[in-house]
Amino acid sequence: MGLLTSTGTPLKWEQAKQYANEVRTLGINYFLSVYKKLKEKENSCLKWGDEVEYLVITYDDETKNAKLLLNIQEIIDELRKEEEEAMKIPNSEETVKTLWRPEYGRYMIEGTPGTPYGGTLKSLLQIEPNMKLRREIVSKFLKPNEVAITLTSFPRLGCPGQFLEPHYEPTGPIARSLFVPDEVINPHARFQYLTSNIRERRGSKVAINVPIFRDKCTPDPFIDPTISKDRNLFPEDKEAAEGAALPNHIYMDSMVFGMGCCCLQITFQACNIEEARRLYDHLAVIGPIMLALTAAAPIWRGYLSDIDCRWNVIAGSVDDRTKEERGLEPLKNDRFVINKSRYDSIDCYISTDKTLKPEYNDLDLVYDQDICKKLMDNGIDELLARHISHLFIRDPLVIFKERMDHNDDEDHDHFENIQSTNWQTMRFKPPPPNSNIGWRVEFRSMEVQITDFENAAFSIFIILLTRVILSYGLNFYIPISKVDENMMIAHKRDAAMSEKFWFRKNVFADGNIPNDGNITQENENLSIPDKEALDSSNNSRLNGHADTNGSISSVEDEYEQMTINEIINGNGDKFPGLIVLISRYLESVNIDVETRCQLAKYLEFVSRRAKGKIKTTATWIRNFVRSHPKYNNDSVVSQEINYDLVKMVEKIQKGQVAVPELLDCFKV
Ligand code: ADP
Ligand code: MG
Ligand code: MG
Ligand code: MG
Ligand code: MG
């Protein structure tokens, strides 16, 4: 969630909201000043980095319980000491190998490489060792019965009984949850106030309902016996009984159920703003595909659910829209009816590339027209102006009073305040102040995998895909409403195997696979496809929407539904497959055999996952639970099943057991 720079007196929602317009104005002024200064900025080198989030677990072997360890701030403080020491030394970049940040859950840590990786193919091979190093470093600060694992959702978060160490009863005034205490939230004021201000802005607790997985002995209808109907501690306690908790669903009422999940994110620097905007668009289409392929979250609040991934749970967990904004009441006090949560898929493409037809932006975009006009009056094109003014329909949620006292257009906090609480599938990141960092794009949909090998494989796949998109001038555009449909499809149980996703039939500029002469890397430098080559491929793309037969096609004819296997591995002559394109790209650049073989291994893993030879983490977890001797076929994931599952996850990540279902013969 970014670095926690803000300190001071946080404001309760009633006071904070009075500053909303001011924060928006200052944020927009800041963006304009960055844009004016840096719109021409060129960064010739690709850089990228991953973010991995970890849950810290403590075992109680006597009671067969795996719990979330709450007091890990001391560990983060220790981890950051090294970082801070090193920062004091000039040119210290090389000495810090890992960076650590707190996250929403008080049991979470986020780890990134110490510095972003550089733009050579060889540097892709640093990812997995660095991820391994991170686990080693964390484990030095843990006791023998504690472990940091990469599991997207903790299965028994919010269950009756003990799931936290130390244990607290769920009676906190901040989230007012029926299921989790406030102690589960990171104690930094930002996280606490995010939670209470979302609840207050919305006018009720968040309400997340995930369909229950119906097993042989699951009661029908399923009415959750663990939801307290008669607690009378907060006015919100009535909500569950008054309709917030749906029958046949797993009901959750607090931000931690979403923001307490772990994910895998990749940020990369483009060589300029145009390239960043292109990658933003094309990767947005890939977002739901990768969500389904990395699906890893089938259990919620102790029940097997009928979904496989986290995204919609997080969307619900931070949905601060009022009833008016959700369209449940006519607009009176609020300005917009808003179709989505702050945490959701993107609503508009932003590239200036001619391949972006207006028809692809087919969602009725909600945006602040005054802000849009101001941006356009200051020289920003309509697409980017709409993107920013769409983000800025939101209110800033956490405001520190002191921050409002001294302000100027160079201050990037106000922009970040709104930008960083728009948690979308992609994030377009402008260069930060006083740095030589360029325009960056973040790919945010993936779920974290159990092993570093898998996390490295998916990171490498995405980085190489960006190279292929740029080098071959690929076009993934489909109407953005279809990308949204794909997001919904991605959540379905076993979507990676059983579902089909909207995808573009022809991803090439002129209908044919471009010849590799267009790719001008003479060495293993990953950075930039040659400008001329790109221009020529752009030109051919400009010549219209002719399909292979030369006839003009309508947008509806451009896409169809494909399985993930077809998208990744191809479908004969019909569609080449992303892995095939990546392999072809790798063959056309000059790399040493060793690097080529290493990369092939990661790609092979992704390919086999897409074929179904390797199960998704979600399917593996579901199968583990359903075949556990103590499982009663009733969708309940008991304390003991959870304990065995977490123990098994630990063994897998350490390479202590072979699990061919999940890893085939790959070594972790
Ligand atoms: P956030 O939480 O806001 O997404 P973080 O700072 O936690 O951002 O992580 C961003 C990722 O971007 C890290 O992996 C980091 O290594 C990487 N990164 C840092 N600088 C650059 C850069 N110039 N270009 C690309 N990636 C970068
Ligand atoms: Mg994070
Ligand atoms: Mg985050
Ligand atoms: Mg981060
Ligand atoms: Mg991030």
UniProtKB/TrEMBL annotation:
Keyword entries, A-Z: ATP-binding, Glutathione biosynthesis, Ligase, Membrane, Nucleotide-binding, Transmembrane, Transmembrane helix
Enzyme superclass (EC): ligase
Recorded catalytic activity of this chain's protein: L-cysteine + L-glutamate + ATP = gamma-L-glutamyl-L-cysteine + ADP + phosphate + H(+)
Keyword Ribonucleoprotein: no
Residue ranges of the TM segments: 456-478
Entry-linked InterPro entries: GCS, Gln_synth/guanido_kin_cat_dom
Involved pathway(s): Sulfur metabolism; glutathione biosynthesis; glutathione from L-cysteine and L-glutamate: step 1/2
EC numbers, comma separated: 6.3.2.2
Gene Ontology biological process terms, A to Z: glutathione biosynthetic process
GO CC annotation: glutamate-cysteine ligase complex
Residue spans of biased composition, Polar residues class: 535-551
Pfam families in the cross-refs: GCS (PF03074)
Chain intervals for the UniProt region annotation (Disordered): 531-551
Top-rank taxon: Eukaryota
SUPFAM superfamilies listed in its UniProt record: Glutamine synthetase/guanido kinase
GO molecular function: ATP binding; glutamate-cysteine ligase activity
Family stated for the protein in its record: Belongs to the glutamate--cysteine ligase type 3 family.
Protein name, UniProt field: Glutamate--cysteine ligase
Annotated organism of origin: Gigaspora margarita
